[in-house]
Design a protein that fits this description.
Elements (H helix, E strand, L loop, with lengths): L7 H12 L3 H11 L2 H18 L4 H8 L3 H13 L3 H13 L1
Helix pairs in contact: 3-4, 3-5
Length: about 100
Amino acid sequence: MNDKLKTKEVDGLFDAVLKLKTRDECYDFFEDLCTISEILSMAQRFEVAKLLNSGMKYHDIAQNTGASTATVSRVNRSLKYGNDGYELVIRRLEQENN
C-alpha cells in the first residue's frame, strides 16, 4: 500500500464504500462522488484487468473494450507489480460465481 494514499480522508471514503449494500446504492454514491467519465474509466480498467487475467492479448482487449494500449499496459503493470487488489477482487468474484 502506498503510504501517501493512507490518510484519514481516504479511510473515511473506503469506510463509506464498505457500507454500500446494493448495486443501486453504489450507482447513487459513485454518481455523486465521480463524474460519469471517471466511473466509466474505472469500469473499463477493471474489465481490462479481468481480460488480462484470463490471458487475452493486448490487441484483443483494446479492440473489445475500446481501451487504449497505454491503459492496457498500465493495468497489466498493476497486475504484475501492484498490490494484488485486482487479483483479490477477481478471485472473489470467480469464487462467488462457482
